[in-house]
Amino acid sequence: MPRFSVVAIRLALLYFLLGISVGALLLVNKAVPLHPALWALLPLHIEFLLIGWIVQLVFAVAYWIFPRYLNQPKRGRPALAWAALICLNASLLMLAIPALAGWGLLARGLQAAAALLLAACLWGRARPTLTGVARAAQQNPTQEE
Ligand code: HEM
Fold it and tell me: Is the pLDDT of residue 145 over 50?
């Protein structure tokens, strides 16, 4: 598995843990009211699980598993994927840190940028793969299939 996917999966698992912990706290608060202010954590629960966990896991697996180019760099330009990961995690930090509460719009912009950067990295790889006989025929065009 490429380094990018290892890092992204580990980050996704971290957000999964944070997200379900907040969810569990909200659930307990529903059954046994602890403090009404805890409901303010609901947007964080949603952000961590939908963006931090699910979207980040999709980034990791897509970069790893999309068809690779035959020549180097086989996974396209990794710098684009790393930039996407940085934008995504910066946006999550902005939304999670109360002192940065006013930066919500910038955080959404970073999420859009992350999606575009990953799409730019994967665009050329979204194509039919050459496997088995077809690849052998391409590498040895004189031989009969
Ligand atoms: C991938 C997993 C999850 C995702 C994507 C997710 C997403 C969401 C979303 C979108 C809402 C808002 C629903 C609404 O406002 O109508 C929500 C609410 C909530 N979630 Fe989760 N959630 C997940 C897992 C969990 C887990 C594991 C727990 C508990 C341990 C949990 C506890 C809650 C609670 C207590 C609420 C508030 C429900 C209410 O408004 O009464 N969630 N979640």
Answer: no
CA angle 42/44/49 to nearest 5° reads 100
Pairwise CA distance, residues 39 & 25, whole Å: 10
Instruction: Supply angle C-alpha 95, 64, 93, rounded to 5.
Output: 10
- Inter-residue contact 76 to 124 (CB < 8 Å): yes
The type of residue at 140 is N
Q: Is the CB of 30 under 6 A from ligand 1?
A: yes
Residue nearest to atom 31 of ligand 1 (CA): 23
**Whether the CB of 46 sits within 6 Å of ligand 1:** yes
27 ligand 1 Cβ < 6 A = yes
Name the pTM for this structure. Answer: 0.89
Tokens of 104: 């919500």
End-to-end CA distance of the chain: 32
Q: Tens digit of pLDDT for each residue in 24-55?
A: 999 999 999 999 999 999 999 999 999 999 99
| Radius of gyration in angstroms for the set of CA atoms belonging to the chain, rounded to a whole number | 20
**Pair of tokens at residue 113:** 């940028």
Q: CA 108, CA 73: separation in Å to the nearest integer? A: 31
